[in-house]
């Protein structure tokens, strides 16, 4: 607008302009123009149409919105716009923590900050929204984070790895979210970390994880640990794993290699249920492949001896399964092998044996069984092969209950688990003892007993052997059982045995090294052994094996002591009330050691003596791997394998093996020549013997008829031929028995098995090639264990009918009468027993086949081949009188083994007729003849013992200190120095004798005592208390030892009334006085039988040294009566109390102050009240004036003082000729006691210094 130049207009214009300016100023002040440049605000402004109103407009300028309107309205709108713009806040937080609080935090935001949005970042949380609400949300989050609790769970790395790889974490988090009130977060690192707002939720989550997840390492054992079985294990486990992981990973399997690269462990990790299933699968596989045993009950005892033949007959292949048939504890077969194969065998046997047919054939002819064992054996085998059957002899069948017949048996065999738990307890004599040779770890028993030191498995050699065989399995079981335990000597640790051992349990005894007989070691070992036996009874086991514990380099027990401790505990166990179900105790001796033979002999000796106690058998039997073996070879000759020393043989002929050059080298030759003597050795040195020849010499001092010397030349062929020649030589010269050693098995250097084969072939050839009429017994005597075992193995193969002899159970003598000769038979009774048992025998054969027709054909053929071959021999009654019970038992065994018949004479003559095969009858004849000779020898021995018993007395010092006479047998042995086997006293106690020290000791307890010998005179028997007296010696003074019971007894009686010190006690042995005293005692005893006998009393008599010598040699003399008054009559005075006789009036002190006193046993007989004028005792009654009293006494007829008056001076009624005890005291001894047994002298010490100086022995008693 152009204002122009006029002032008016200018003025008006200026006013208008001012007004306009005012208007614009007013508008400017009342309106606001706001440019929004923040993109988010601009976006909101452009999209929110509510911003445009009548008062506010929105324009766009340069792409940015401009808000124009009333100043206050625009400001309000801008404030609202600014408030509507969200605030961002980034908060750092651990993922596991936010997971725990997320749900609770979202709930808080919704409630208190609805406009805030939550965004997740990398270890952060972003809050977006209004600033105020964002700040409030951040505060809430911080509060929740502070409430989060964490728990670290220690899990094996394998489980943590499984959680990560299997996706189990998300699964568990989902599970916890559903099942727990508070969410639990899981995070895996070096440990498993659990997070939650609730401690209870953490505990529940941990428990769930521990319960649901598991890790197990399974040890592979045996064949399963190495290929190819290992490959099969992997295949089975991987297949099971894949099946379990079809939908998800639930279990993982890995194989952990051992040091040598072979897989020895399987690791299973995953969910517990799946781990358990795979573990069971692996366990079942190992159990099926691990060796196991099943006990198959057989329906017929005959199947035991022919079970392997049955297997062949039915075509069953054994493969890895083995069978061991046994009659114990009942007819059964032990099937051993892999579990799966054993079960297959069970099924197969049940199916195939259903058609088995059994029948019996009874042949009434004598000795039919014997015939088919020898001459008819080949025929029987042909019948078996032809008819496809098995034929066995049936033992012990009575002819009265068995008759020929046909019975078809179709048994169904039942299997039972091998178990030794027997209901009820076993009788005390049902336990069998077995001495086994071998390693303890190879024994097949329920329990093995082993030693240990300091609770360590491998501390002893036996424990190391167990560890070597069982491996880590026994190590872990031992450590588990011994954990947190301390062991005192004698404690027992029980450990379950792994399958690799042949037992179910192991008992380890904590031992203590040898510290002497009275030390702790013996007590500890005895305690441990007893505990083991008690545990066997408590746990109802059937069998246990003990080694000889102690004689090793660590414990260092003497071998003898170790054996005694073991066998004594076994003996005490046998004597206990019940042995439970324990049916077998094995004592295992390991061969090959220098003392193995000695150990065996000692164990056998102790056990055989323990098998019977007090006349009762406490064990069922004693068997040994070295028991004698008896076989019958050609011609009925008995062949025996004997483990022992050939120098102990008493056969007619003994064979010596030698090289004819070296006679002093240790071995059989040196032993035989030592016994035979130098003459035989000289004869042998001078001999010129060709190769393969026999040199015959005199026997010298050897108890046989001839010695045959041979050299095997280290050649088995020569040895075999020599044996044949030896047998022919014995037969040609009429010898009945021969003992042969193992020729060339010792110094000869040949293998024992080779020697065994050669000698046995020689015996078989010689006895089968020609008939033998003289030679009936061949004994192969073998001194080494390994040699005997080699012969045993060879003999049982060559002679299947071999019989092992077991230890019998004789009645042990325990009184004097039983130690004499064995009682002879009462022919009318004992032979009737033999008759009833033998004549009823039949020869019964059992047939087993797969069909009825096969069995019938076989029975017919066998019966047709049998022919009676009998002979008969009759014995007179006189021939049988001398038979003992042992002889009868031997005859019974001969009758049974040879199938003989015994028939008694019915006419009353007492004769006996034996019928059967010739060789059996011949052996019975020989046995009866031998018994007659033995009976004669016993009678001679009994007479010798009786005669010696009257001349010589051997005594043993009893527990009470008194000498006791030994029985006649012990007396005879001691006199003849036959003490190697010890002696038995009158109470049945066994003693070992030390002849040099005249002592004896008990083998087990070690108790010692003394022995002494007394030689009787022709007309006088020395009292047992006396010492022996030399020939022609009639008087002897013996000083008693203060330690003896005799000394103590006299001293105690004296000291009861006299307070003086005893210096010395002596016994007076006067043969003449004693002989007279005994005669007088017998006379008084006979005359006063109704009154009670001689009334022998212990009384005292004081005297002087001058009178002492006279009394000792001539006795008391009544003619000296009156020296010290005659108050009760003229005679010799005695007192009951020593104090009376000790008075100086009677026992007058010597110059040194000592006194003497006699202690005597006085025969008072019938006594009366004495009087001063009485010279002889008064008559007992007026009606019988010649029947006088025997002695006079003091007041009230009590023998305070006794006046002994003989009826006739020349024949003294009272024992004035006797032996006395003499006591020498310082004062106060006034009486002498008359003693008919012995006298003793006591010296009493003096109480003044001068008197003590004169008697250096003062004070000892």
Automatic annotation (TrEMBL):
Gene Ontology BP term (one): protein poly-ADP-ribosylation
Family, per entry: Belongs to the ARTD/PARP family.
All copies of domain PARP catalytic, residue ranges: 1022-1249
CC per GO annotation: cytoplasm; nucleus
Originating species: Sparus aurata (Gilthead sea bream)
InterPro entries reported for this sequence: Macro_dom, Macro_dom-like, Mono-ARTD/PARP, Poly(ADP-ribose)pol_cat_dom
Gene behind the chain: LOC115590463
Enzyme class: transferase
Domain Macro: 420-608, 626-799
Pfam assignment, any one: PARP
Region (Disordered): 1172-1195
Database matches in Gene3D superfamilies: 3.90.228.10, Leucine Aminopeptidase, subunit E, domain 1 (3.40.220.10)
Compartments (UniProt record): Nucleus
UniProt GO molecular function: NAD+ poly-ADP-ribosyltransferase activity; NAD+-protein mono-ADP-ribosyltransferase activity; transcription corepressor activity
EC number of the protein: 2.4.2.-
Keywords: Glycosyltransferase, NAD, Nucleus, Transferase
Protein name: Poly [ADP-ribose] polymerase
PROSITE patterns: MACRO, PARP_CATALYTIC
């Amino acid at each position: 607008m152009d204002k122009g130049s006029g002032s008016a207009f200018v003025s008006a214009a200026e006013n208008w302009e001012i007004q306009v300016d005012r208007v614009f100023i007013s508008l400017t002040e009342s309106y606001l123009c706001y440019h929004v440049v923040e993109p988010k605000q601009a976006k909101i402004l452009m999209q929110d149409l509510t911003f445009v109103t009548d008062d506010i407009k929105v324009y766009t300028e340069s792409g940015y919105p401009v808000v124009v309107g009333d100043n206050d309205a625009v400001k309000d709108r801008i404030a609202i716009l600014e408030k509507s713009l969200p605030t961002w806040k980034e908060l750092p937080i651990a993922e596991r923590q936010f997971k725990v609080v997320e749900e609770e935090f979202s709930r808080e935001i919704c409630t208190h900050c609805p406009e805030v949005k939550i965004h997740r970042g990398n270890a952060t949380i972003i809050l977006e929204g209004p600033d105020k609400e964002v700040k409030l949300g951040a505060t809430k989050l911080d509060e929740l984070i502070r409430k989060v609790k964490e728990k670290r769970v220690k899990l094996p790395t394998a489980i943590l790895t499984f959680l990560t790889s299997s996706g189990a974490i998300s699964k568990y988090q989902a599970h916890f979210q559903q099942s727990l009130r508070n969410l639990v977060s899981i995070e895996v690192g070096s440990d498993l970390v659990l997070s939650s707002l609730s401690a209870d939720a953490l505990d529940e989550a941990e428990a769930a994880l521990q319960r649901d997840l598991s890790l197990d390492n399974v040890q592979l054992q045996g064949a399963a640990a190495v290929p190819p079985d290992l490959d099969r294990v992997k295949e089975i486990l991987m297949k099971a794993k894949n099946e379990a992981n079809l939908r998800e990973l639930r279990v993982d399997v890995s194989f952990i290699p051992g040091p040598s690269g072979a897989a020895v462990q399987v690791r299973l990790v995953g969910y517990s249920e799946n781990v358990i299933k795979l573990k069971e699968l692996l366990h079942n596989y190992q159990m099926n492949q691990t060796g196991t045993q099943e006990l198959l009950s057989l329906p017929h005892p005959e199947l035991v001896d022919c079970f392997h033949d049955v297997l062949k007959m039915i075509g069953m292949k054994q493969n890895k399964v083995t069978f061991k048939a046994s009659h114990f504890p009942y007819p059964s077969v032990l099937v051993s092998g892999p579990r799966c194969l054993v079960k297959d065998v069970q099924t197969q046997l049940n199916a195939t044996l259903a058609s088995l047919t059994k029948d019996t054939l009874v042949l009434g002819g004598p000795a039919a069984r014997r015939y088919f064992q020898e001459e008819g054996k080949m025929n029987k085998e042909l019948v078996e092969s032809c008819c496809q059957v098995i034929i066995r002899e049936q033992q012990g069948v009575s002819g009265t209950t068995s008759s020929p017949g046909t019975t078809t048996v179709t048994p169904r065999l039942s299997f039972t688990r091998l178990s030794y738990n027997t209901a009820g307890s076993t009788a005390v004599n049902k336990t069998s003892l077995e001495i086994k040779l071998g390693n303890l770890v190879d024994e097949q028993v329920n329990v093995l007993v082993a030693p240990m030191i300091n609770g360590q498995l491998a501390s002893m050699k036996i424990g190391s052997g167990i560890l070597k065989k069982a491996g880590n399995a026994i190590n872990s079981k031992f450590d588990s059982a011994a954990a947190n335990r301390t062991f005192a000597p004698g404690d027992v640790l029980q450990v379950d045995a792994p399958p690799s051992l042949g037992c179910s349990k192991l008992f380890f005894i904590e031992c203590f090294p040898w510290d002497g007989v009275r030390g702790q070691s013996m007590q500890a070992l005895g305690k441990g052994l007893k505990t083991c036996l008690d545990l066997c009874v408590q746990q109802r086991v059937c069998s246990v094996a003990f080694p000889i514990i102690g004689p090793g380099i660590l414990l260092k027990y003497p071998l003898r002591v170790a054996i005694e401790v073991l066998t004594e505990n076994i003996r005490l166990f046998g004597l206990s009330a019940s042995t439970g179900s324990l049916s077998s105790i094995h004592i295992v001796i390991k061969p090959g050691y220098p003392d193995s033979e000695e150990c065996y002999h000692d164990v056998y000796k102790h056990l055989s003596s323990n098998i019977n106690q007090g006349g009762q058998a406490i064990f069922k039997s004693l068997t040994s791997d070295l028991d004698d073996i008896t076989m019958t070879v050609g011609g009925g000759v008995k062949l025996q394998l004997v483990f022992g020393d050939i120098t102990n043989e008493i056969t007619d002929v003994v064979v010596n093996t030698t090289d004819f050059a070296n006679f002093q080298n240790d071995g059989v030759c040196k032993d035989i020549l030592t016994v035979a003597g130098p003459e035989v050795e000289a004869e042998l040195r001078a001999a010129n013997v060709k190769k393969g020849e026999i040199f015959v010499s005199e026997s010298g001092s050897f108890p046989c008829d001839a010695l045959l010397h041979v050299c095997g030349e280290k050649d088995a062929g020569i040895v075999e031929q020599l044996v044949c020649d030896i047998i022919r030589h014995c037969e040609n010269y009429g010898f009945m028995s021969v003992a042969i050693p193992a020729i060339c098995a010792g110094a000869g250097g040949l293998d024992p098995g080779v020697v065994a084969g050669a000698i046995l072939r020689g015996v078989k050839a010689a006895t089968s090639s020609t008939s033998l009429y003289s030679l009936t017994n061949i004994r192969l005597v073998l001194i080494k264990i390994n040699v005997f075992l080699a012969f045993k193995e060879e003999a049982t193969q060559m002679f299947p009918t071999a019989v092992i002899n077991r230890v019998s159970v004789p009645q042990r003598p325990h009184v004097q009468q039983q130690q004499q000769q064995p009682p002879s038979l009462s022919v009318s009774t004992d032979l009737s027993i033999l008759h009833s048992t033998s004549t009823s025998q039949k020869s019964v054969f059992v047939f087993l086949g797969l069909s009825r027709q096969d069995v019938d054909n076989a029975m017919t053929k066998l019966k047709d081949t049998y022919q009676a071959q009998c002979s008969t021999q009759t014995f007179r009654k006189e021939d049988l009188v001398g038979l003992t019970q042992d002889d009868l038992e031997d005859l019974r065994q001969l009758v049974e083994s040879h199938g003989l018949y015994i028939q008694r004479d019915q006419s009353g003559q007492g004769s006996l007729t034996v019928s059967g095969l010739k060789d059996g009858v011949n052996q019975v004849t020989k046995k009866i003849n031998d018994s007659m000779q033995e009976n004669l020898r016993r009678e001679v021995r009994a007479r010798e013992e009786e005669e010696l018993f009257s001349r010589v007395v051997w005594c043993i010092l009893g527990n009470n200190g008194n000498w006791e006479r030994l029985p006649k047998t012990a007396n005879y042995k001691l006199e003849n120095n036959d003490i190697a086997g010890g002696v038995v006293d009158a109470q049945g106690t066994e003693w070992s004798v030390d002849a040099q020290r005249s002592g004896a000791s008990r083998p087990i307890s070690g108790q010692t005592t003394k022995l002494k010998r007394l030689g009787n005179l022709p007309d006088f028997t020395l009292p047992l208390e006396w010492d022996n007296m030399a020939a022609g010696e009639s008087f002897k003074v013996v000083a008693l030892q203060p330690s003896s019971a005799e000394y103590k007894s006299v001293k105690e009686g004296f000291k009861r009334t006299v307070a003086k010190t005893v210096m010395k006690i002596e016994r007076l042995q006067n043969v003449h006085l004693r002989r007279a005293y005994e005669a007088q005692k017998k006379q008084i005893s006979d005359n006063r039988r109704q009154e009670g006998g001689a009334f022998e009393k212990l009384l005292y008599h004081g005297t002087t040294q001058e009178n002492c010598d006279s009394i000792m040699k001539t006795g008391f003399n009544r003619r000296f009566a009156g020296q010290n008054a005659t108050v009760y009559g003229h005679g010799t005075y005695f007192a009951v109390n020593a104090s009376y006789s000790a008075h100086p009036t009677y026992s007058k002190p010597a110059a040194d102050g000592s006194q003497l006193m006699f202690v005597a046993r006085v025969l008072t007989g019938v006594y009366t009240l004495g009087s001063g004028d009485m010279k002889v005792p008064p008559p007992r009654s007026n009606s019988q004036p010649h029947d006088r009293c025997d002695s006079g006494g003091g007041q009230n007829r009590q023998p305070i003082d006794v006046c002994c008056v003989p009826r006739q001076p020349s024949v003294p009624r009272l024992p004035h000729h006797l032996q006395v005890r003499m006591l020498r005291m310082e004062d106060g001894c006034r009486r002498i006691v008359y003693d008919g047994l012995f006298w003793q002298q006591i010296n009493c010490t003096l109480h003044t210094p001068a008197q003590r100086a004169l008697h250096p022995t003062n004070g000892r008693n």
